[in-house]
Design a protein that fits this description.
This protein has 6 helices and 8 strands, in the order βαββαααββαββαβ. It is an alpha+beta fold and about 200 residues long. The protein has one domain: 2-Layer Sandwich (Alpha-Beta Plaits), CATH 3.30.70. The longest helix has 12 residues, at about 120-130. The mean pLDDT is about 95.
Length: about 200
Amino acid sequence: MIFVEYIERERSIPWEIFRKLGGQDWSGSDRIVANLGRTMRLAPTPHYMCWWQIPSIKRMDEWEEYFRSSEGRIYLSESPTSKALHFQRCGLYDEIIGHGEVPSGLHLVEFFSAPGQSAGEIKHWFGERAGDSGAGRLTYVINRLGLIAPDPGGIAVWTFPDYAGAEPFLRRMPQAGPIAVAGAGLYRNFGEDIP
């Protein structure tokens, strides 16, 4: 399961502090698999996304229990992270396709809807596109759990070496079908992005 944080920089915090804290400092069984920032302003808001791979939805119960504890309350009040990062919204997603941590590179992030489609049907549709010439590496496809994430509900990440390598794929509109790509943006790994 993937827990996605949609993040904006708190504008009252200096850029250098945001960059330092945006790498996030949480530890435990959770693993960051993507920490992305829009690059060259070629993506919608919010500008940043951090994806945490969690074992199951039970992790949400554990987080709430921790944040209600005295240690968790101290963390919330003293951690500079929540003061520098404005967490606009979060979402829960099922992994359809995933390949560990998102590598360095230029990432085309597609936001899609797949109403009534099974995980297998979504995987098949993206798998066919991944076989197209000029397609980048299909790094991730996730689909929201119920309605517990922003519209349109699904996210796919394609990784390219550079803009020139991405151009043929960017020019090719996805074919109409059971999956509707509603928007897209270009991102890089946090710290490699150009704001």
